[in-house]
Every structure is written in structure tokens, then in C-alpha cells.
Design goal:
Blueprint lengths: L13 E12 L23 H17 L2 H4 L5 E7 L2 H8 L9 E5 L9 E7 L3 E9 L3 E2 L5 E2 L4 E8 L2 E9 L7 H25 L5 E6 L7 H10 L1 E2 L13 E3 L2 E3 L2 E6 L11 E7 L20 E2 L2 E2 L9 E6 L1
Parallel strand pairs: 1-2, 9-10
Antiparallel strand pairs: 1-18, 2-4, 3-4, 5-8, 6-7, 8-9, 10-14, 11-14, 12-13, 15-18, 16-17
Helix pairs in contact: 1-3, 4-5
């Protein structure tokens, strides 16, 4: 069993904002509308109640400790990717390590062919939802047929008395090649640009947080344009190195999971939140501790082989401070 984090005093002037791609968090029931056949009891992956409960417990433990070293408490807001539906979110926030965290959630079913969505869980004692909306990404395949990916989720609310807009993303993967799929991520980037433009038309000083698994790195056009054209800051630009990232592919680290924020989080204020720091949550318990892939994310599955870990991604987080 993992040793609990040492007791750290709760810092009421800080909050953690996090994002976590939780790697295929599916329930045990067959959904005829989506391609969830791999994640059923008796399927090729043999997704059993015991494995499902183990996954919930581990993901819950990870989430409960993101930012705890700095703040002494669980995160106020956590964007999630690769969750199947409301059921798995309800089961997650009721699991052992999160049941005391007062989490509620925002989720919309997206048209993604794999049946995976994004969501936002939030500590209802710190955050009040005012409005939420899902934005579809219009994509067309080479043959002219519609292609479906995850929606972009916008949640507007009040964090400890301060208005904030959170945009949660899970952009199209690079599975068919980085260049071949770039247009899909640029379409998602354009949708985020449109959302930011609309928010700033309503309030030029809107505080905005953009988070997600972008399947692109900070230096790629899809993310650079958000920074350059829409007044965002990407603290993740300096975090990736040859020995560190959020996901590993062919022994190379990538930092696809990121949190960006509007630059008004750098304005000095006695009463409002300011940006304090950002990091990858890559604690030892989330990593393989031996073998040729030592230090990589400890995954639930590698292909069809069950490993019993957490996720193939590390979470990322940002600390805000008053």
C-alpha cells in the first residue's frame, strides 16, 4: 500500500487547478451507441468489477494528492479526459479517497466514436457553477464523411468569490501521424479561440483557464497561436525535458497535457488569486519502479495486457495564491 502524504497544514490562501487524462475510465455496461466492447466483462481486456474498483481507487488517490504538498488539500478543480459517462464520474467521486472532498461535476456526452468525454469535477465548497456548455468540433474525413471527436467543455463559475472560465479539452490524437492529423487539432484550437473571443467580448478582463490533453506540445502551432493571439500564458513550456513529460511514446517524453491561463492572473492583488506555480504531478507511486520502462507512467493496460496501474498520462496542475 502507498504511504499517505505527510501531513501538511491546509493553506486557505491557495487552490490547486489540475488536469488528468485517466486512460479509458469505462463502466462495466455495454453502450450500444459507442465502441466500448473492449471494456466489458468477458471482453479481450477482461474488464471486471474488481479491476474497475481498483482503477477508481487509484485514480481517486492520485487526484486527492495533486497539489497537496503545496496547499495541504485536494484540488478545487480537476479537468478529466477519457471518462465514458456520468456513471464513472459518480463512482469516482464516491470512491475511498475522494468521498470526503465535496466533489460535484459537469459533463456532457460527446459524439466521440470511442465514447470517451471530458468533464470537470469541482469542490462545491470552493466553486459555484454559473454556466456550462459543450462545443462540438466540426471535422470531415478525406472521403467527405463527418468525423467525430471530443467536445470542448466550457464551465463558467465562481472560485472563492472570483469569476473564472475553465475550458477543458481532449484534442484528436496523432495515431495516423502528426502531420496527417494536425488539421484536427487546429480545428479544436480555433474553437477554443472562438470561445475566448466571445468571453472577452462579454468581459474584457475575464479570467480564463484552458486545460487539456492537446496531443500537441507547447511549441506546436495549435497552442502557440492561443498564447500569441489570445493573451494566454503557458507555464508548461519550460517543464518538458528529455527526462520528463506527461506521456511517453517510443521512449520519448511528450508534454501533451497542459494548463494555460490568461495573463491577468499575474496582476498583483491583495484579494484575488494570482498565478503561483505549475508542475507535472509525477510522483513515484504513479511510475513504473523497475524494468526497461522504469520511470514511465504506470498504466492500467498496455495493449490488451492488464497492468493494474493508474494511467498512461501523468496529471498536470497549477497553484493559485491570494
Amino acid at each position: 500500500m502507498i504511504e499517505p502524504f505527510e501531513d501538511i497544514p491546509v493553506r486557505n490562501n491557495m487552490q490547486t487547478i489540475a488536469f488528468y487524462n485517466v486512460e479509458n475510465l469505462f463502466d462495466l455496461h455495454n453502450n450500444k451507441a459507442t465502441n466500448d466492447n473492449d471494456f466489458l466483462p468477458g471482453s479481450v481486456k477482461n474488464w471486471t468489477p474488481k479491476r474497475y474498483q481498483n482503477k477508481l481507487r487509484k485514480i481517486g488517490y492520485a487526484i486527492s494528492n495533486i497539489g497537496r504538498r503545496e496547499t495541504g488539500k485536494h484540488p478545487a478543480l480537476v479537468g478529466l479526459a477519457e471518462i465514458e459517462n456520468d456513471t464513472v464520474i459518480k463512482d469516482l467521486i464516491a470512491s475511498k479517497h475522494l468521498e470526503h472532498c465535496n466533489y460535484n461535476f459537469v459533463h456532457f456526452d460527446s459524439p466521440d466514436e470511442r465514447g470517451i468525454d471530458v468533464a470537470l469535477i469541482y469542490d462545491a465548497t470552493s466553486f459555484i457553477v454559473l454556466n456550462s456548455e459543450a462545443f462540438a468540433i466540426p471535422l470531415v474525413d478525406d472521403d467527405g464523411s463527418a468525423d467525430y471527436t471530443r467536445d470542448v467543455l466550457l464551465v463558467s463559475g465562481v472560485l472563492d468569490g472570483e469569476n473564472v472560465h475553465v475550458i477543458v479539452n481532449h484534442w484528436s490524437s496523432r495515431r495516423e501521424g502528426q502531420k496527417e492529423t494536425e488539421f484536427k487539432r487546429l480545428a479544436s484550437s480555433q474553437k477554443v479561440s472562438d470561445i475566448i473571443t466571445h468571453l472577452k467580448q462579454q468581459d474584457n478582463n475575464a479570467k480564463i483557464i484552458v486545460m487539456g490533453d492537446f496531443n500537441d506540445s507547447p511549441q506546436n502551432t495549435s497552442l502557440k497561436r492561443l498564447v500569441d493571439d489570445y493573451g494566454l500564458f503557458n507555464p508548461m513550456e519550460t517543464l518538458r525535458s528529455f527526462t520528463r513529460g506527461t506521456v511517453k511514446h517510443k521512449r520519448q517524453w511528450f508534454l501533451f497535457d497542459q494548463i494555460l491561463l490568461s495573463t491577468n492572473y499575474f496582476k498583483s492583488s491583495k484579494s484575488n488569486y494570482e498565478y503561483y506555480k505549475a508542475n507535472i504531478f509525477d510522483e513515484a507511486f504513479l511510475k513504473l519502479f523497475k524494468g526497461p520502462f522504469k520511470g514511465s507512467p504506470f498504466r492500467t493496460y498496455v495493449g490488451k495486457k492488464y497492468k493494474g496501474g493508474y494511467s498512461d498520462h501523468f496529471p498536470v496542475y497549477m497553484i493559485l495564491k491570494k
